Amino acid sequence: MKDLTRGSIVSHIVSMAPPIVVGMITIMICQLVDLYFVSGLGDAAVAGVAAAGNAGFLVNALMQMLGVGTVALVAHAVGRKDRDDANLVFNQAVVLSVLFGLLTLAGGLALSRPYMRAIAADEATIEAGTTYLLWFMPALALQFATQVMASALRATGIVRPSMLVQVLAVAINIALAPVLITGWGTGHALGVAGAGLASSIAVFIGVLMLLVYFLRRERYVAFHPAQWRPQLRQWKRILNVGLPAGGEFVMVFIIMAVGYYVLSIFGPAAQAGFGIGTRLLGLIQMPALAVALAAGPIAGQNFGAGNGARVRETFVKASLIATAVMIAFLIVAQFAPGLLLAGFSNDPETMAVASLFLRIISFNMVAQGLIFICSSMFQGLGNTTPVLWTSAMRVLTYSLPSVWLSTWPGFRMEHVWYLSIATTTLQAALSLWLLRREFRKRLAPPKEKAAELASPEPVVPLAREPA
Fold first, then answer.
1. Which residues 6+ apart lie within 8 Å of 405 measured at CB?
2. How far apart are CA 358 and CA 247, in angstroms?
3. Neighbour tally for 37: CB within 10 Å
4. Which pLDDT band holds residue 247 (cuts at 50, 70, 90)?
5. Smallest Cα–Cα separation from 146: which of 66, 236, 207, 57?
6. Which is nearest to 120 in space by CA: 50, 174, 65?
7. Which of 265, 257, 269 is nearest to 412 (CA)?
8. Which of 166, 187, 216, 292 has a CA between 20 and 30 Å from the CA of residue 21?
């Protein structure tokens, strides 16, 4: 366990963010590798895998419910030096991870094809996306266990073991992808099914590695079978914090689904370009998101310890770092989009769509970085409801106008991307305002201000009597 209530906040962020970003980037690279090898199967396969991958946002909503609730409550317990409560929250989250994993498997089997029929442009895309989802669903189900274990570690200030496991699992996925997709070395090409199967095998091995780490090395939070009996009160604690954050991912899913829907009139090449562009954008946003994820446990531990000044300082320092990172990547996206996109498709139309998307949407990056930081601060404070409000506002101001714009005779795909810039900026402004209000409500004023409020007149200390 690492005590985040002491020491330099910048040092804590700088030490925690790199392992987090490495883990996230490797996961994103894994998805891009799938797209890379699937691209040889045609635009329909790329569009199908990209659109099916968007369903992961919906499953990630459930993962966020568990992950955010676990991080916030365990971090608060660590800040209070209450190890018993930290372990109880962790073990009840493990039980929920098993339940949610089983629900994901059942839902995937029943809803994969109806989902693809709702958003895909043609029958070939529907078939490719459905096949990928069915083989990818075990990976999504197993990731609930990974999420809970990694979240508990992050709440205690430990991020390196999770990063190493993710890197190893992704390396396995990258090694398996060409073998299973294209039949390298075996002569048995599974196509898009191989992409999903490679991910499922890699995630399964990753879960096993994290289990071994917890059983052999982790000491602060640990598996206690006696605490696995369902306790509805603890489930309510976890979900009360996590549910709004999960709702935020549902909103992202809706926004992405609307994007695929309005682009369906331009054909599978446009959807394929959009899918590649969104994944690359997610990749270059990872460092700022990692800064935010590092800030959450720092804020949570200090909030649990009653140190409001360090919570505020965490927000300021994290915002400055994230903004600097986003500006750097904005420049890269503006001046070298072709370099980022190289090798992901041989179709000029697909690459043109992806390049145009990156150039326009990259202007969202600074605002998106501030949204990341605000979301993590709300999680650290244990109140994620404002995150849901701001996300819902963005859905309303983006999705409905996008569908309306798509009915115009002169509609072009970039119209919705310009709209995205406006709605993301609005969400960032609302998030900052709500976080400022939350600080005033939940954090004690600075000591100097509190002393002035309690004692308007100067306080003169009494002279001590000589012993």
1. 262, 411, 415, 416, 419
2. 26
3. 24
4. confident
5. 207
6. 50
7. 265
8. 216
3-class DSSP state of 299: helix
Per-residue pLDDT of 136-193, as tens digits, reads 889 888 989 998 998 999 898 888 888 888 888 888 988 898 888 888 777 788 888 8
Taking a C-beta distance cutoff of 8 angstroms, is the pair 289, 60 a contact? Answer: no
Distance CA 121, CA 107 (A): 23
Q: Please say if the pLDDT value at position 288 is more than 70.
A: yes
CA 294, 285, 301: angle at the middle one, nearest 5?
10
As given in the structure block, the two tokens for residue 94 are: 């493990």
**DSSP designation for 265:** G
Q: What angle do CA 391, 325, 440 make, to 5 degrees?
A: 50
Give the chain's radius of gyration (CA, Å).
23
Q: How far is CA 66 from the centre of its chain?
A: 12
Say how far apart CA 45 and CA 49 lie, in whole Å.
6
Give the C-alpha separation, 89 to 215, whole Å. 18
Amino acid at 155: A
CB within 8 Å of 425: residues ≥ 6 apart? 364, 367
Distances (CA, A) of 199 to 131, 138, 270: 14, 9, 26
pLDDT of residue 96: 94
* Residue 41, token pair as written in the block: 């199967």
Confidence of residue 27 (pLDDT cuts 50, 70, 90): low
Q: Among 199, 220, 227, 111, which Cα is nearest to 155's?
A: 220
Task: With H, G, I as helix, E, B as strand and everything else as coil, classify residue 82.
Answer: coil
Cα separation, 403 vs 416, whole angstroms? 9
